[in-house]
Design a protein that fits this description.
- By secondary structure, the protein is of the alpha/beta class.
- Helices cover 34% and strands 24% of the residues.
- It has a seven-stranded mixed sheet, sandwiched between helices. It has a four-stranded mixed sheet with strand order 3-2-1-4, with helices on both faces.
- A hairpin with a 2-residue loop joins strand 5 and strand 6.
- Helix 2 packs across helix 6.
- It is globular.
- The mean pLDDT is 93.
């Protein structure tokens, strides 16, 4: 019988985790949660206290070595399980890495692309893809129908944009507003400006992929703030909260 599998995604703000029945796509989800990075030390005696021990784990980290080590301490303290982390490579699980220096590509971006391609192939024939993560930073990836990562964009998320404006402009310390087509107050103007800046970058990448590949891309969106962006996008974006976890399951199965 397969043993449980622990997937971990350590972003810039939070550590997300999910425990599955087995290490393959489609495995049943047993438990999941998230902790802010300041509170990683709560995991072993808190949310993980009553979990069955996983037979294996795989994670991706963008937050740096110090945060990774704190997570590893919790994993080792609570489970008899060796921590394993994804490092972007030249090719894995159906994606070929077109980055100039493949190992410098953020692991979360790499894993999300792998998860998205598996999802796309499950749904039908191979197509180009645009994969968007909306978090502290925003990333927009382009992948051709053969699985080659063509390149991607990185831009600031909503919070960074607003903080930059507040710190660089007098008198802009205002509450978060609503997204409007024609904002008539400063709060709405700030929120709408950031939202449409991200939407514009994403839509430009969709145009690039459509032109380069000669086909309409499948478009996926994930990340903690993805639900904010999905309603304002032109065209169809499938919102997939678990895209990185899906990618970790695909990689775990491929590695055996």
């Amino acid at each position: 019988m397969a043993s449980p599998f622990l997937a971990i995604d350590i972003g810039n703000t939070r550590l997300k985790w999910a425990l599955y029945d087995a290490a393959h796509p489609g495995a049943a989800l047993r438990a999941h949660g998230a902790e802010f990075l300041d509170h990683i030390e709560r995991l072993a005696d808190g949310p993980w206290a009553d979990l069955p021990a996983p037979g294996s784990m795989l994670g991706c980290v963008v937050a740096g070595d110090a945060v990774r080590r704190r997570a590893e301490e919790q994993i080792v303290e609570r489970f008899d399980c060796a921590p394993r982390w994804v490092v972007s490579s030249a090719a894995e699980a159906g994606i070929v890495n077109g980055y100039d220096h493949p190992t410098r590509l953020g692991a979360d971006r790499w894993v999300a692309m792998i998860g998205a391609r598996h999802r796309m192939l499950d749904a039908g024939p191979a197509r180009p893809m645009v994969v968007v993560m909306i978090g502290t930073a925003v990333t927009v990836e382009a992948i051709d129908a053969g699985g080659k990562f063509l390149g991607g964009l990185i831009l600031p998320g909503h919070g960074i944009m607003l903080r930059a404006l507040e710190s660089g402009t007098a008198g802009l310390h205002v509450p978060t507003g609503e997204v409007r087509e024609f904002p008539t107050n400063t709060s709405d103007a700030l929120t709408s400006g950031g939202t449409y800046a991200i939407a514009g970058a994403v839509e430009r990448m969709v145009q690039h992929v459509r032109s380069h590949c000669g086909a309409e891309p499948a478009c996926y969106m994930t990340g903690g703030a993805g639900w904010k962006m999905a309603p304002v996008m032109n065209g169809h974006f499938e919102l997939v909260e678990s895209l990185i976890m899906d990618g970790l399951l695909v990689i775990a199965q491929a590695r055996g």
